[in-house]
Specification:
It contains ten helices and five strands; from the N terminus they run αββααβααααααββα. By secondary structure, the protein is an alpha+beta fold.
């Protein structure tokens, strides 16, 4: 009986040692998993419905824009005109691409069409139709104004004859109806637009502004084409 106590103490120490090793091993596995797993951008994205690509993508590209900024539209229209190539580029290079739409020009110079276009685009986003609306708006602005030299640059003739229902009609072109109309007419998205523009202003230097991974820049020329868009995209990957 006198020899059993040391034996029990030894067994207890062995089990405590095994438990400590197991806990340490578990923490090590967790640390390794966190270091090797891909980062998620879902906590950074403003709205998943304005993105293209995988939320778990290795590369994260952001474009801050305003539909009434003609230089923004040149960049986006070049992407639209090369859409299949752009989608392939996003897939091949594991990129999440996000549009952050603002009414930057309204806040800066009381440009009413800037806010009106943003409200309509956000209403379309509510129905998960952002990209359809965005592309139709780019096309309409080009056909009605920019291709004619109206509103196409800072020195061009400004847009003065835009119908009051211009942005509503773009929604109708892509099949949006009463829900969209009510959203626009009741200004249901204006608070969100104001909030997002306020978030954008401190991190942008005019429109358009880009944050493609560590590459940041702003501005685009209305005479530039797809090659320049591609150069911006490549810069985000560190390509020369």
């Amino acid at each position: 009986m006198e020899n059993q106590t040391p034996i029990k103490d030894n067994k207890g120490r062995i089990w405590r040692t095994i438990a400590a090793i197991a806990v340490a091993a578990l923490f090590l596995v967790i640390i390794i998993a966190s270091l090797t797993s891909k980062p998620s951008h879902s906590d950074k994205v403003w709205d998943e419905r304005t993105t293209i690509g995988n939320l778990e993508a290795k590369n994260y590209y952001i474009m801050y824009t305003d539909l009434m900024c003609p230089y923004c539209d040149v960049f986006s229209r070049e992407i639209l005109n090369h859409w299949e190539e752009f989608e392939q580029y996003i897939a091949d290079n594991d990129i999440l691409f996000e549009i952050r739409l603002t009414d930057y020009l309204y806040e800066g110079s009381n440009h009413q069409a800037s806010r009106d276009s943003a409200e309509a685009a956000y209403c379309a986003t509510r129905e998960d139709r952002f990209w359809d609306y965005y592309h139709e708006a780019l096309t309409s602005l080009w056909d009605d104004y920019h291709s004619k030299g109206i509103g196409s640059s800072k020195t061009a003739t400004p847009i003065k004859d835009m119908p009051d229902d211009y942005w509503l009609q773009i929604g109708h072109e892509i099949g949006l109806g009463d829900t969209f109309d009510n959203c626009v007419n009741n200004h249901e998205t204006v608070d969100l637009i104001v909030e997002n523009t306020q978030r954008a202003v401190p991190v942008t230097e005019g429109m358009p502004s880009f944050k493609f991974n560590r590459f940041t820049t702003s501005g685009f020329d209305n005479n530039w084409g797809w090659d320049y868009v591609k150069a911006y995209l490549d810069a985000g990957l560190g390509k020369k």
